[in-house]
Amino acid sequence: MKDVDDKFRKTDTEVPLREELRPRKVTTPDGQEIDIDPLRDYFCEAKPKVHPKAYSKIVEDFYNWARANSLWILGFGTGCGAIEMRPLMTPRFDAYRYGIQWRPTPRQANLLVISGYLSVKTLKRAIRAYEQMPQPKYVMGLGSCTINGGMYWDSYNTIKRLDDYLPVDMYVAGCMPRPEALLHGFMELKRVIREGKGEGANKYAENFDQYKANQKAVIKDWDMPDYNW
Amino acid sequence: MSLVQLSLATGFLLILLGLYGALTNRDIIRMIVSFTIADTGVNVVLVAVGYLPGREAPILDTIPVAEAASRITDPVPQALVLTAIVIGLGVTALMLAYAYRLFRARGSLDISEFTELKW
Amino acid sequence: MTAFPNFEWVQIAYALLTLFIVINYGMVMTAVVRKIGARVGGRYGIPVWQNYVDLLKNIALRSKISHGVMYYLGPVFRLTGGVGLLMFVPTIYGSEWHQNFSYAGDLILALYFVFFGTLGMALGAGESGHPHSAIGVSRGLAQVTMAELPLALGVYALSLQYGTLDITKIVAAQQGSIFNWTLFTNPLATVAAMVAFVGTMMRSPFDVAMAPQEIPIGPPTEYHSSYLALMQTNRVLFPVAKTVIYMNLFFGGATSWAEFAIKVFCLYMISVVIGVVHPRFRVEQSIRFFLKWGLPLGVLAILTV
Amino acid sequence: MVSPLLILAAGLGAAFLLGLLRDSSERMAFYLTVIALGFMSFVGLSWTVSLALGEAQPVEIYTAGARPPFAINLRMGLPEAALTSVVTLTGLLSAVFMRRDLMRLGRRAMAVLMVLIMALSGLIMTRDLFNLFVFIELIVIASAGLVLLSQDTRALGAGFKYLIVSQVISILLLVGVIFTYHANGSLNIDDIAATPMGFTGASLAIFLVLIALVLELKPFPANGWALDIYEAAHPGFSALFSAASGSAALFAVLKLFEAAGPDWAPLATGIGLVTFVGANILALAQDHDRRLLGYSSVGQIGLVLMVVGYGYDWDAGLYYVAGGLLISHAIAKAGLFWLSGLVKARKLSDWAALRQNPALVVAFATFIAMLTGLPPFPAFYAKWTLVHAMADYGDYPLIAIFLIAALIEAAVLFRWFGMAIKREAIRPLAYNLSHETVVLIAMTAGWALSFVWGAISGLDNLVTLVPLLFALLFLPLDILPARIKNVIAIAGLVLWFFLSKDGLDPLRLIFLTIMVLGGALLLLASFHAKGRRMGFYTPAMLMFAGMALLVTAETSFQFFAAWEFLTVGSYFLILRGHDSEPHALSYITFSLGGAFALLAGFAVASEGQFVIPLANLSEVAPEIAPYVFVLLAIGFLTKTAIMGLHIWLPGAHAEAETDVSPMVSGILLKAGLFGLFVLLMEMGRQELYGVDLTVLLVWLGAISAFIGAVLAAFQEDAKRLLAYSSISQMGYAVFGLALMNHLGWLLAMMFAINHFVYKSMLFLAVGGVKERTHTKLMYKMGGLITLMPYSFVSVLVGIIAMSGVPPLSGFGGRWIFYNAIMSTDLRLPMILIFMAGPVGFLYLFRLIHTIFLGQPKDELRKVKEAPFWIILPQMIFVAFLIAFAALPGMVLQRVDGYIGTLFGDRPLVWTGRIIDSQYGTWNPVAIWGVIIVVFVTVLLLLVWMNHNAQHVKQFNIVFSAERPFKPQTTHFAWNFFAPYRKAMGFLEMPVSTSFWTGVSNALHGTAEFSRKFYTGNGQTYAVQLMLFVVAVYLISMGASS
Amino acid sequence: MREILYRLKDRYHLGTPTFQRTDLCFVTVRRDEIRAILTELRDMEGFTHLTFLTAVDWIEEQLFQLTYMVNNREANLSLGLRVLLDREDATGDTIHDLWPTAATYQRELREMFGIKFPGSPRVDEEFILEGWTDLPPYRRDFDTLAYSQQTYNDRPGRVTHDPKTHMQKTLYPSYPKGAK
């Protein structure tokens, strides 16, 4: 289906590191000159770890039950689907009864819902937010945009496959999926978690280099540490 | 009006005249002259106060010592006047010396020119 | 062991029992309160055991980070504040079991120990380096300076009234009839103190320190997993412990666990009811509120004792 | 004995001999001058010594072999001998000082100098009115001649103005003399005295004589000519003109006023007071050093003139007071003029050049202390005696005016001193060994006279006090390295503590411990200083000496002297700080103001005595007791920096050096508290216009506690924050004291101890941070916890203790506080105190958060922990705080018992480690036990769950999915309590600051405006002179009719 | 509207106005006159509001067309002024001093079309693209589809249909007759 003019070749130029992240020299109050490498000094460089399951299966199952019944969603709307998530809190859908609630900080959230198309710029933020969530963590992609690009299939600035960049546990199809579909997606996700298959975070850690390569391929101005703790 | 009163009045008049002159003339030489006038006035007053009518000057060459106490005027003011005149002379001389040097320094004898020290 | 009069090891067991009861009570009660709120809104609401599930989930989280020693100790301070507060206050009047370690001090100890956890938490949040944490702390501290004032005045009026600072004695003086409660013998002090109560329960309209969605959630922005678990525990324990103080001081205390449960629930509901119908105050608004209402009430209370 | 006449003879003879010499032999002429002056000084001194020791009797010398009125007679008594010595010695030293210029101008100038000294001596000794006139004229001529010594061409004009005025004066004098003679028939002063003239219109003669002589003293405002002389003349001559001429003329005036009789005394008092006040106010606006000295001379002479008029019937007392002031003035002024000869430029700030030579700085300080009447110099005794005498006569307004003017004078001089210490010199010091020697001789003379005055004071001789000597010991020791001096200082303090601790009651013992042992502890931090640290140990030890003496003082005089010592010592210490010049000035101004209030209070309380035991304060007559209370309280409250009198504190504490801040905050403030303790202990409750003054104190304490805390919360500067916090904490202590019950006092005691510990600790910690980060602004720091863990721990413990959170010792304070207020009826001020409590959290949290938590900055990433010697005392304090919190009984139980004996009650019951009050219980060990067990349990639980936490770095925060840009914008610190400021910012209105600024501006404005009066025109000056005479005449006539 | 144009025509070179509605008109002006006209419109004629500033890429004519849409709120009139720029090294005149909002539009045009506006504040900073190094994406010589295919992975199995035939097949499978 290459129905395009192949004469066009994209240019791949290196984007220089941003000013504030470049190593610099600073004079201390005592008059010494010290070197500051922001990426090393200000950010933790450790790679993500693969966290094993609990030693005992019963305990792990118990934990998984708890995880399934206490899904805390990061309140981060990336695209048009964000508007479909709001009704979930209303009396009509009332997602709370399933132990689902929204948290404003990634540190306390377990589920990242990518609610629609992801521009490259937003992808950067989504990656950061995802990496800052504690394990185990889950990603849910909403709508065709996250699945195959959807109507943005030819956009110069929108990714087409979310699972290239983040380990997706559950896709909910539709453009956009309605709240009912979303609820169904949550239920499915809970099932997956209860079955102990919600190990996206470990998968991410295992295939970290590959994910990073994918991410860096589209985010040209990679201006953050490799893993955002 | 007795002689004493007359000389007293003259003396004070001279003093006032001198002071008036000294305080109104800006020229330093005129001021000095005015002060001399005032000094003279003071001396007149001095003598006038010590004058006793009908007595003579306290010069013991002409008057027997024994009678001196009753015939001469009070000798103290006379002595004072002499001293005062001498001192007045000294001060006047000094002022003139100053006037000379002031003129040398500034080329002017106007007292209001020498106000660089103030406040 | 002169410092611990009549100390027996079994007291520790009783204290732990009190703690256990109160924590579980708090877990269920807060969930029930939320459920009531949901029902009022026409929703089904969370299951009553949701708090346990959340707690378990947070403990079960696998990866954790630490921003430093003080960050690590923050929740420890917080929970110690909550548990300590409970330990320093007699829970059930007349019960030898549930006097805890209240002989260590009196009302003043309890009032000042309230700040122990707050301070530690603020320090921990501070070390996380998150500006929103610092903003939350700044707001919270600014608000608490005025919010605690009516309580201090009310308590002063109260201790003048009873001539003692000993909580047990104050409870004892309120026994006999419902009209012996401070609520009826000294309504002004009670109202003043309740203003402070509402102001320090971290519920709307006085929740600007947390301000969910605005500065994400204020001080605990960086806290997660087991830190958060400790804080959740405190979150159910501490309001109850604080309510116990109010109950003891103004509402005749409790002579049994049943009375305890009812009174704490009712008192807690006061702040909930006010919270659901009022939007959030900004800091300066709430400070002015306390200056305008809490302070005069407190002044009146101590002038009329 | 040598005949005193030889003084005159030697002067005249030398002048004559000089005339015989060849022009070229200047050297010989100079030696001749010096020898003659030396001989004259020797005669004068020998008479002084033998008269003072009683080996000789005063003599009358009759010239021409006749008795008065037929001949001139001279007298040599002790005052004459002393003043002659001053005059001739000043002449000698000035001659040495002016050596180069004298040689340049040759023997004539030396002859004129000889004549001047001779005439001055004659003026002092003569008892004949006309002779007086002659000497005055000689002085005028000689002075006018010597003015020409100056290389400043403007001196010519000044000299001429002087001559004009002298002419007018001589006319007045001569007319007066002759009419006096006419009326009395004698020119002898004693004869005139024998037939006193009433103060009537007919006595115009004596008025003219008196006013002419007074005019010689350059009374304000008829003194523009004199100021010009001071400004333009050679400093050596100005020294003579100020010290010698001034003293001699003053003595002449004294003689005549004695002769004229008591009716004329108010004239001297009035003119003197006006001069003293006017000259000092005008001096405020001066920035030319010699002219400033001129104003100061005028003021000082005015002061002595006032004393002359005021104390005409005190006999020896008059000579003691006036002599003390006069000699202090003479030495100090001569010394300062000589010093000004060493300084090349003429702005006040140019005196910074003096810092090249520490000995000269000491001399400068000595002279200024002499002028401002600080102990142990003669003027101090004189001031004490004078104010007591005024109080005895009931002239309270006079005391007020005098003290205010004295305060202005002190402000003027210390402003100058501050500039000399803190500004940068533009031109180096002129090096001249003989000049320096002359200055140092004057300084030595000042100290020697202090000893003399102390010895004959009938009070304590302050120079011989061991602590003071110990402090002075560090002057010569200053060449040693700082560490050795530090060891000596610590040893001295500890030794003094053990020497003086016996026999003190527990309250005083605690204060002594805080002040002396606490000082030794804080000095540990001074080991950090490198090099010699010149000029640190003397002031520090002076301050500690003051405090040690304060606690052990038994009489009002000892107390006041100690108070002044500690004030001065701390002033010098504060002045050492960076950018501290204006703050040190406001500190010394407020402190001296407070001290003067104390002086007035003691004077009023003493009721005719010159010194009273402190215990006698309780026996002050009930009518005046409230006023005494108010005065003393103002003095002490200035030191504790109560709201309204606090504006000196933040700057002074914040700008001081790292180890000085804890001293002046942790220790020095306790001096005020101690004073209040003594005051309240002795005087109890006092009522004024139906207001219970202790209630007023309660209110003041409460307001300070609250506003101080609010202001602290709004500071960006860490040390300023702590300084405001001190105001707040002292407010608590004052509040507790003023409650006037057992627990209130215990509370104050608790605060005294606690505040010392945690404020010292916090100041040290913040100072240590400042040593490393080179800033005090908190928002420039952040995240230092990992880099400076020990400092963090001490701040953490400090703020927990300070905020009163259990289990640390601050809680004990709060517990006692609640128990204290339960037993009092004062309910409204409590509200403020209650409000202050939580506000304390605000600034404390801000302190720890913005410095140690949050985001470290680029340039502070490699900062090291504070130096060991600064950390060490902090760790000792931490240990103490924890121990004190667990076992408060070890300190408090004895104090409690002692306070019990004062109030006769026993509200606290100490059973084992448990403290019971009537209202509640405090069981510190149990509190510790429970908290530690719970804390450790929870911590273990967390560690068990959370042992594998990944340690992350500062930018690993959730930032709304963004990445922090730089630490500066991520660290929330500046204007930390913005919302609080929105609500409560109105409390920040600088009411007291604007008030005091207004006062200061008004004074400066007056000065700036009034000095335009001195137009610089000689004629105008003469007119002013005449008008002055007329005005004085009319006023005095009006007053007497 | 016409009166305004008549008034302007006296002093400026205006192209033929195109009236879309009576209150909306487009007219082409010369680049060197645009600032003067805009200033006059703003200050004299009451066109106080800059509705937008946008560009069109006439690649065939090697031109960029800038469209300044200004609006007179009181009279409810909208006037679009077109300026044609040479496509090579296109440079426009900044009007951020007339309307501060223009700076934002100009920044966007700089990023999306590569039209330079010297002197406009922050005009060279990134606007909505981060780290963009390719051709400005709104230029028509930038092939967005090719770029997308070269940059982002496709999910296999994706099919592209011609909308017309696809919908016809889906909704009316029996039309045209026998097509099944």
From TrEMBL, chain B:
Keyword Transmembrane attributed: yes
Positions of transmembrane segments: 6-24, 31-52, 79-100
Protein name: Membrane bound protein complex subunit mbxG
Keyword vocabulary terms for this entry: Cell membrane, Membrane, Transmembrane, Transmembrane helix
Localization of this protein: Cell membrane
InterPro entries documented for this protein: CPA3_antiporter_subunitC, NUOK/Mnh_C1-like
Protein family per UniProt: Belongs to the CPA3 antiporters (TC 2.A.63) subunit C family.
Pfam families membership: Oxidored_q2
Membrane topology: Multi-pass membrane protein
GO cellular component: plasma membrane
From TrEMBL, chain C:
Keyword check for Nuclease: no
Pfam families the record matches: NADHdh
Keyword set includes Membrane: yes
Cited InterPro entries: ComplexI_Subunit1, NADH_UbQ_OxRdtase_su1/FPO
Subcellular location: Membrane
Organism domain of life: Bacteria
Membrane topology: Multi-pass membrane protein
Keywords per UniProt: Membrane, Transmembrane, Transmembrane helix
Transmembrane regions: 12-33, 69-89, 101-125, 178-200, 260-277
GO cellular component, one term: plasma membrane
PANTHER family assigned to the protein according to its UniProt record, in alphabetical order: FORMATE HYDROGENLYASE SUBUNIT 4, FORMATE HYDROGENLYASE SUBUNIT 4-RELATED
Protein name listed in UniProt: Membrane bound protein complex subunit mbxM
Organism: Celeribacter persicus
From TrEMBL, chain D:
Occurrences of domain NADH:quinone oxidoreductase/Mrp antiporter transmembrane (ranges): 127-408, 557-832
Family the entry assigns: Belongs to the CPA3 antiporters (TC 2.A.63) subunit D family.
The protein, known as: Formate hydrogenlyase subunit 3/multisubunit Na+/H+ antiporter MnhD subunit
Membrane topology: Multi-pass membrane protein
Main location: membrane
Transmembrane segments: 6-22, 29-49, 77-97, 109-126, 132-150, 162-181, 193-215, 236-258, 264-285, 292-312, 318-339, 359-377, 397-417, 438-456, 462-480, 487-504, 510-527, 584-604, 624-648, 660-681, 693-714, 781-806, 826-845, 866-887, 925-945, 1021-1039
Keywords assigned by UniProt, alphabetized: Cell membrane, Lyase, Membrane, Transmembrane, Transmembrane helix
GO MF term list: lyase activity
Residue runs in coiled coils: none
Keyword Transmembrane listed: yes
Pfam families (alphabetical): Proton_antipo_M (PF00361)
InterPro entries tied to this protein: CPA3_Na-H_Antiporter_D, ND/Mrp_TM
GO cellular component: plasma membrane
Role, per record: NDH-1 shuttles electrons from NADH, via FMN and iron-sulfur (Fe-S) centers, to quinones in the respiratory chain. The immediate electron acceptor for the enzyme in this species is believed to be ubiquinone. Couples the redox reaction to proton translocation (for every two electrons transferred, four hydrogen ions are translocated across the cytoplasmic membrane), and thus conserves the redox energy in a proton gradient.
Compartments where found: Cell membrane; Membrane
From TrEMBL, chain E:
Gene3D superfamilies: NADH:ubiquinone oxidoreductase, 30kDa subunit (3.30.460.80)
GO molecular function: NADH dehydrogenase (ubiquinone) activity
Short name of any one Pfam family annotated for the protein: Complex1_30kDa
Bias kind Basic and acidic residues: ranges: 155-165
Cited SUPFAM superfamilies: Nqo5-like
InterPro entries: NADH_quin_OxRdtase_su_C/D-like (IPR037232), NADH_UbQ_OxRdtase_30kDa_su (IPR001268)
Domain NADH:ubiquinone oxidoreductase 30kDa subunit: start-end pairs: 27-146
Residue span of region Disordered: 153-180
Superkingdom of origin organism: Bacteria
Family, as annotated: Belongs to the complex I 30 kDa subunit family.
PANTHER family registered for this protein in UniProt: NADH DEHYDROGENASE [UBIQUINONE] IRON-SULFUR PROTEIN 3, MITOCHONDRIAL (PTHR10884:SF14), NADH DEHYDROGENASE UBIQUINONE IRON-SULFUR PROTEIN 3 (PTHR10884)
Name the record gives this protein: NADH-quinone oxidoreductase subunit C
